[in-house]
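Sequence, please.
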């Protein structure tokens, strides 16, 4: 049975950007979809060139719109959109230049600072001028080892303003992880923070620059940024042939007016990295125009963001959601940047901030929602969240329990948009919209212009069955390329090895009759006991119902020419993994999932291995228990946690 949790009122719907967009299409193309999302989506994928042009026109993108809508190629990833068009990414994000609020920064310790649009424009102009003066040109790479603060946004937009290519890692990456990533792209500039704070601890960063510079000889300029609200740590730095600047020196320039140079629509904007838990991180290079149009579409039409809205997404600048958050500036909205531990001194810290700061869109991870649920946090009567219109959830599948928890314990009248995409496309394949209801456990629908489907192993389209998430037609936020990828081999292997000329995303998913999607996890971690494919999300959703269990991890262990399911659980400190509890877990999984989902063995562990972005790494655990080498431990926030999976005698019985 489907359970509708929320529907947009007719009054709100008629004021929505999606409704206004339909009206725009009526006048321009004489189209009338009558507020039917499926009909609108169908037009956007069948007329993709016209659709993406209409996004440019509807949102008043600044630049030169060329005549050609697409450059066609028989090869999926070589198709281009608006190939004759030109724009400047930064000019479009600096959408205002007045004394209203543009950015707010809040640290876990309560330190807060804000910046007006006027000051943001001036600072970015100064940084851009400095970058030009030290010889940075179009296509040069600029690397940042910075926290989620205003300075990071300014450095990114200054880089994009002059056509340089941006790349960032958050400071919780160790030196090896930074070197593995940045050494592949040969940056000329490194922005580095002196320190950061996490869960009350100060973590020194600046001394790491010695090892980084030693291993990345392309870096010519080091720019030191003090953590907001503090002075620069007194680290003595003296490097031959390296110029060292402090952030305050850059901002001492007088007022500067900048003329924005226009770059090709498909000019490279930024390099993001795959998580790299099984190999060296892939350097995914994204396009300027494709990212801008895709983000405007998602933020404006799917999330209904308007001028003066306040957007808060809990993220680090090493995750693609940071790029998504920053793009909200293009819609004349202001953004809030939080840095630190999301539950520092109080479990509901982020919700308190969302309430105090009058946030309109609040973005969090499914794991964060589950952590609140597990801690039995109820804020519905504590905070009114009167300005909050939208809650976005991503990072992993949001369970039915997670959906229900939001409406019962955070806010009743809110658009809960579970969204899913990835670093690969720096955007979403499936997400929310205001035309359709929110159904418990389902992502509402495909993104406009995204020809998403579910295929079986033979490449047939299927419905109400689990299969592989694919995209059948090109879209503008496809990666431009992978850096240092001769003949596009890594690119083709990543997305086009399974189905010919069809984007295979690597998610195990299902389309429901409602048009909604259920994501069951990464298909490379899909379980195959007895040759039957099972999603890990179905097991997690049952295990997470137990008060005794804080977190869980499930893998398929190769055993006796088959696969057997192994479940690892992190217990609440008040409980032990008794025989009775094991039987209860198995019984519930059997009843609510299926007998095939029941784990063969269950083990207690102390910690779940995760990436820096909080994603569970089932594959690394599977490789550990099967004796395979883990190639990139630096991708993990807690690599030592893998040691607990070694030499468990019962695993080999």
């Amino acid at each position: 049975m489907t359970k509708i949790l929320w529907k947009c009122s007719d009054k709100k719907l008629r004021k929505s950007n999606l409704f206004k967009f339909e009206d725009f299409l009526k006048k321009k193309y004489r189209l009338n979809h009558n507020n039917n999302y499926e009909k609108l989506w169908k037009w956007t994928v069948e007329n993709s060139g016209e659709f993406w042009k209409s996004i440019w026109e509807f949102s008043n993108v600044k630049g030169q719109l060329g005549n050609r809508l697409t450059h066609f190629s028989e090869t999926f990833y070589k198709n281009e959109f608006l190939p004759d068009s030109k724009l400047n990414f930064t000019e479009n994000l600096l959408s205002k230049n007045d004394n209203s609020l543009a950015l707010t920064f809040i640290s876990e310790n309560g330190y807060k600072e804000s910046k007006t649009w006027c000051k943001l424009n001036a600072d970015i102009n100064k940084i851009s001028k400095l970058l030009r003066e030290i010889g940075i040109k179009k296509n040069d790479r600029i690397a940042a080892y910075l926290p989620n603060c205003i300075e990071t946004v300014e450095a990114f937009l200054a880089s994009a303003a002059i056509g340089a290519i941006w790349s960032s890692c958050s400071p919780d990456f160790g030196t090896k992880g930074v070197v593995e990533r940045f050494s592949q792209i040969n940056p000329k500039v490194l922005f580095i923070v002196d320190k950061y704070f996490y869960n009350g601890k100060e973590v020194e960063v600046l001394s790491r620059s010695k090892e980084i510079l030693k291993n990345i000889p392309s870096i010519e300029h080091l720019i030191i940024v003090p953590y907001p609200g503090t002075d620069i740590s007194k680290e003595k730095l003296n490097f031959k042939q390296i110029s060292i600047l402090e952030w305050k020196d850059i901002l001492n320039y007088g007022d500067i007016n900048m003329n924005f140079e226009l770059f090709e629509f498909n000019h490279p904007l930024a390099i993001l990295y795959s998580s790299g838990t099984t190999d060296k991180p892939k350097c995914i290079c994204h396009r300027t125009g494709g990212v801008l149009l895709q983000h405007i579409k998602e933020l404006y039409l799917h999330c209904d963001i308007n001028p003066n809205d306040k957007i808060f997404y809990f993220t680090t600048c090493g995750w693609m959601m940071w790029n998504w958050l920053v793009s909200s500036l293009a819609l004349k909205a202001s953004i809030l940047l939080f840095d630190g531990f999301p539950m520092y001194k109080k479990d509901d810290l982020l919700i308190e901030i969302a309430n105090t700061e009058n946030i309109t869109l609040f973005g969090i991870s499914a794991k964060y929602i589950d952590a609140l649920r597990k801690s039995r946090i109820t804020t519905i009567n504590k905070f009114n969240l009167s300005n909050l219109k939208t809650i976005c959830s991503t990072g992993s599948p949001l369970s039915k329990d997670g959906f229900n928890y939001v409406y019962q314990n955070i806010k009743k009248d809110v658009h809960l948009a579970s969204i899913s995409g990835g670093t690969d496309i720096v955007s979403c394949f499936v997400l929310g919209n205001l035309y359709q209801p929110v159904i418990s456990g389902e992502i509402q629908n495909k993104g406009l212009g995204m020809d998403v489907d579910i295929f079986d192993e033979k490449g047939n389209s299927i419905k109400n069955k689990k299969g592989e998430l694919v995209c059948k037609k090109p879209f503008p936020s496809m990666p431009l390329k992978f850096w240092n990828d001769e003949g596009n081999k890594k690119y083709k292997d990543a997305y086009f090895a399974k189905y010919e000329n069809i984007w295979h995303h690597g998610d195990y998913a299902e389309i429901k009759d409602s048009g909604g999607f259920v994501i069951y996890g990464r298909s490379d971690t899909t379980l195959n006991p007895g040759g039957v494919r099972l999603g890990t999300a179905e097991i997690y959703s049952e295990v997470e119902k137990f008060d005794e269990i804080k977190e869980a991890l499930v893998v398929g262990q190769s055993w006796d020419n088959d696969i057997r399911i192994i479940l690892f659980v992190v217990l609440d400190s008040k409980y032990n993994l008794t025989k009775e509890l094991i039987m209860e877990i198995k019984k519930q999984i059997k009843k609510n999932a299926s007998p095939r989902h029941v784990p063969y063995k269950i083990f207690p562990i102390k910690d779940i291995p995760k990436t820096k972005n909080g994603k569970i790494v089932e594959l690394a655990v599977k490789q550990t228990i099967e004796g395979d080498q883990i190639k990139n431990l630096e991708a993990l926030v807690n690599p030592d946690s893998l040691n607990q999976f070694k030499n468990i005698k019962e695993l080999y019985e």
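The CA atoms of residues 464 and 512 lie 5 Å apart.
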